[in-house]
């Protein structure tokens, strides 16, 4: 039902991230993928030994943030059969259980949502000063909870994020990840050209964070 896609570029954080996800996730993970952008064959082999239930794939070299996502999406287009993808960078740990099936059910009944993501702790100076991602721009986040599913969430149009979260596999069938710098921002602009499109964070305004970003930098370069 859900393909787990873990993006890494050679850092050791992944050896904490994957066990944390496995201990916290509730639901049906039918495929497990690691995309290794380290460019190091020995590192890819070490990942396969450490995580034998995962399929380790590479872009054949160090391709950076955008290039790695383009490579991973190309592989999932051809080889995945799952209707949903849980996207996970290699430097997050989970602070509470997360029901990935409920996240998929929310996407199934809310076609305007392009993703359901998990909030992390405030990271940059502006987020820290405000007290959080949602708190920085509270007027931009609106309740879109589904009581029938028992799922609370906040919808917004600020960005599409590659922080931990779920999206439909149809997203990568219908869109290519942009090349060049600021690819996350360019992809967000492309999606939100549709005035009905929304992203969402799981949880209510007061739910707090679900994941902790543990790395000093995010995976890869060239955002």
SS summary, helix count: 8
Oligomer: single chain
Order of neighbouring strands in the sheet with most strands: 4-3-1-5-11-8-12-10-9
End-to-end separation in angstroms reads 29 Å
Series of secondary-structure elements, N-terminal to C-terminal: EHEEHEHEEEHEHHEEEHHEE
Helical proportion? 25-40%
Q: Which segments are poorly predicted (pLDDT under 50) over 5 or more consecutive residues?
A: none
Based on Cα principal axes, name the global outline: globular
- The portion of residues forming beta strands comes to 15-25%
> Got a strand count?
13
The mean pLDDT is: 93
Describe the structure.
It is a single chain. It is built from 8 helices and 13 strands. It has 223 residues and is an alpha/beta fold. Strands 4-3-1-5-11-8-12-10-9 form a 9-stranded mixed beta sheet, with helices on both faces. Strands 2-7 form a two-stranded parallel sheet. A two-stranded antiparallel sheet has the order 6-13. The radius of gyration is 16 Å and the shape is globular. The relative contact order is 0.21. The model has no long low-confidence stretch (mean pLDDT 93).
């Amino acid at each position: 039902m859900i393909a787990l896609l873990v993006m890494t570029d050679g850092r050791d954080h992944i050896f904490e991230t994957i066990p944390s996800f496995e201990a916290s996730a509730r639901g049906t993970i039918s495929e497990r993928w690691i995309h290794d952008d380290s460019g190091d064959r020995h590192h890819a082999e070490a990942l396969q030994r450490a995580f034998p239930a995962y399929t380790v794939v590479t872009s054949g070299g160090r391709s950076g943030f955008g290039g790695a996502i383009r490579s991973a999406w190309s592989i999932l287009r051809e080889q995945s059969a799952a209707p949903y993808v849980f996207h996970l960078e290699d430097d997050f740990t989970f602070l509470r259980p997360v029901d990935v099936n409920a996240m998929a059910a929310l996407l199934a009944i809310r076609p305007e949502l392009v993703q359901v993501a998990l909030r992390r702790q405030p990271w940059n100076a502006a987020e820290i000063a405000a007290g959080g991602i949602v708190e920085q721009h509270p007027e931009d986040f609106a309740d879109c909870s589904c009581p029938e599913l028992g799922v609370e969430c906040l919808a917004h149009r600020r960005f599409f994020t590659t922080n931990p979260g779920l999206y439909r596999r149809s997203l990568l069938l219908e869109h290519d990840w942009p090349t060049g710098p600021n690819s996350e921002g360019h992809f967000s602009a492309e999606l939100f050209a549709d005035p009905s499109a929304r992203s969402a964070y799981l949880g209510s305004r007061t739910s707090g964070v679900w994941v902790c970003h543990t790395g000093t930098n995010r995976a890869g370069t060239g955002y």
